[in-house]
Design goal:
Blueprint (H helix, E strand, L loop, with lengths): L7 H32 L5 H30 L9 H18 L7 H33 L3 H34 L5 H19 L1 H4 L15 H10 L1 H12 L5 H14 L5 H22 L5 H22 L4 H37 L4 H30 L9 H10 L2 H14 L14
Helix pairs in contact: 1-4, 1-5, 1-6, 2-4, 2-14, 3-4, 3-6, 4-13, 4-14, 5-6, 5-11, 5-13, 9-13, 9-14, 9-16, 10-11, 10-15, 11-13, 12-13, 12-16, 13-14, 14-15
Amino acid sequence: MTEREVPPRTQALAVVTAGFGQNLVLTTVTTFILVYLVQYAGISTAGLAVVTAIITVAKVVDAVTDPVMGVVIDLTRTRWGKLRPYLLFSAVPVALLTTLMFSVPDADEPLQLVWFGVVYALWGFAYTVCDVPFWGLIGSAFPDPARRTRVIGDVRAFGAISLGLATLGMPWLARALSGGETTGSGWSLAVLVISVLGMGLFLLAFFFTRERASSLAGGRLTLRQLAGTLARNTPLLLVLLGSVLGFGRYIVQAGGAVFVVVAYGDEGLFTLIGAAIIAGMVISSFTTPLLLRAISGRALVIASSLLGAALYVAMYLVGFASILWIVVFIFLTGLTLGVFLVVQATMIADAVDDAERRTGVRNDGISFATLTFVSKIMSALAVLVFGVFVVLAGYEAGATVTPAMQHTVFLSITLVPAASCLLSAVPFAFVRLPSHPAPERS
């Protein structure tokens, strides 16, 4: 039975709304899980060390499962396509596991840690099952490159908006549902509400999008074909290499809260830095598709990398005496980060199209699995490098902050990202992809 056609504009609206809902859930977990465990589940300092180990191991495993999930997707054949079924069947598990993660039982700490470890591992797997096909669907549902670029820009922009809304709104919602002073049960209810809402919106991508048909004779792929086309997709591999080398773009997000404590003694000031990053990303995510009408993705990502490097160096030279100057520079670097994220996803989609034209094999799953894979690697490297600089600085809770300590931490969020941006530009300079056709009129 053939499914009815869905207009491109409806598909675009569904995908953007789905991405917004998905980011509400992701932001809730990444931003508030440690706060919940320490303040409301009563996890001790020793227990928190175990939690950190659990999260680290789970993230490594999660990164490895992304390509595996991509292969599974590309080998899948159903009447709904190879991508959309995973969106349908992952939404409820993600919502349920997110709620359970914020519903740690009032029991002995070892049992609490086991509960968290099992639930977090299952949540990571379920989220991979929903995230990899979601990005692959964007590449498949929008064959016109101009429209696809606009959709990617909107997904990135509204993802940043949902990040801001969740970051600011979740504590308020938890307090409101606690009936007064915030409680653990209030957090559980708040997360339940956001999980149901977020994954409910996510399901719109299943109901209101359609995948393009495979151009491969018989519509069947083999593991050997997938591996071969991926290994020969030089533009895709160069984009991935440039992305990993650009991990420094994520260091401010990874260590900004620690930096403001070291530099200013007030972690609340991170709200200004976080708002500046989000504002820059939202603006550039909306405008990058317009820029791509006049300039190639390769030229734009190189230019944004060089500009980002210059801005980080300028921030280092100006110094951190004034938080206002830091906020200005963080906003400007947020603009370059938004450009990078849109062009990165766009170039991967273009590389998939190019490989299909050359080989007849379309591998949305494994190709877009590499997007989520490198994003996790970039985040992990950012945390690792920032952590090394914090150790070199000798900073720890309760330590007397010295100018040398401040300078070392400041280096990590300025000159390290600058060098990373410069290195990132090199592989992108060698990417060769066909020019886009004229923008679709609609």
